[in-house]
Amino acid sequence: MTQLSEEELAKLREHAQQEYRAVRANKPELDEDSINLILKKARSHYAWKDEPVSEQQLRTLYEITAAGPTSMNTCPARFVFVQSEEGKERLAKSLKEKNVDKMKSAPVTAIIAYDLSFWESLPYLFPHEDRRGFFKGKQAYIEDTAFRNSTLQGAYFMIAARAIGLDVGAMSGFSNEIVDEEFFAGTSLKSNFLCNLGYADETALFQKLPRFAFEDACSFL
C-alpha cells in the first residue's frame, strides 16, 4: 500500500473543502418538488410499463449511489442487474409466489448484495492509513459492517433511481439462501434485498400508508 504524504493529504483536503463550498453555494437546498420526487410523495411500485431501462441509466444510477457515505468508505454493496429471461427464471426460484409477477414484469430487478471481502480493498478505498487490521479475522464485525453499509447503499440506490426518473419497488419477500446459492455460490457475496426498477404503472397504486408523527418517533435529550 502506498500511503499518501501529509502534503498530498493537505492538498486533497483543501480541494474537497472548496468543492463542497461551491456545491452548497450553488444549491443550498432542494426545492419542494425535488423532495417530493425522491421521498415525500414517492411510492413503492408493483406494476410496470413495458419500457426499457438502458445500460447508461444503470451506470449513472451506480455512480450516484457510489457517492453516498459508508463507514471508513468500505463500500461493501454489489449490484447484480437481472434483465434476461434466463436470469429472471433463476431469480424466481427464490421469490414468494405473490412477488414473481412483480419481478418478471419489471424491466430490471437489482440484487443488492454485499461483499464480505470488502475490507481487502481498504488500501484503495481508505488510503489515509491501512485499516485492514480492524477486520482481519473478525468475521462478526465484517458481517455486521457489510450488512449495515450495504443496506445504506441500497437506500441511496433507491433515492438515486427516483432522482434520475426511474421508479422502484423494493422486495424482501424472497429467500436469501436460494439467491445466494443460485447467484453467489463459491464467492464472498451475500444477498441483502431486491429492488425492481423501471417505469411504474401507477394504476396499481393504492393510498399512501400512514407514517408516525414527529412526537411518536422522535425525542430530545
- Give the spatial strand order of the biggest sheet: 1-2-4-3
Shape call: globular
Largest sheet: 4 strands, antiparallel
- Using the CA coordinates, give the radius of gyration: 20 Å
Any guess at the CATH architecture? 3-Layer(aba) Sandwich
As for the number of domains, it is 1
Structural class: alpha+beta
Number of helices: 9
Can you tell me the CATH class?
A: Alpha Beta
- What's the order of the H and E elements? HHHEHHEHHEHEH
Helical proportion? 40-55%
Mean residue pLDDT: 96
The CATH homologous superfamily is called NADH Oxidase
Number of strands: 4
Low-confidence stretches: none
Q: Note the gap between the termini.
A: 44 Å
The CATH topology turns out to be NADH Oxidase
- Strand % is 5-15%
Helices and strands in order:
Layout: H1 6-26, H2 32-40, H3 55-66, E1 77-82, H4 85-92, H5 97-105, E2 108-115, H6 122-125, H7 139-163, E3 167-171, H8 176-183, E4 189-198, H9 214-217
Antiparallel strand pairs: 1-2, 2-4, 3-4
Helix pairs in contact: 2-7, 3-7, 4-5
Description of the structure:
- With about 220 residues, this protein is of the alpha+beta class.
- It has one domain (about 45-200): 3-Layer(aba) Sandwich (NADH Oxidase), CATH 3.40.109.
- About 45% of the residues lie in helices and about 15% in strands.
- The protein has 9 helices and 4 strands, in the order H-H-H-E-H-H-E-H-H-E-H-E-H.
- The chain has helices spanning about 5-25, 30-40, 55-65, 85-90, 95-105, 120-125, 140-165, 175-185, 215; strands at about 75-80, 110-115, 165-170, 190-200.
- It has a 4-stranded antiparallel beta sheet, with helices on both faces.
- The termini are far apart.
- The mean pLDDT is about 95.
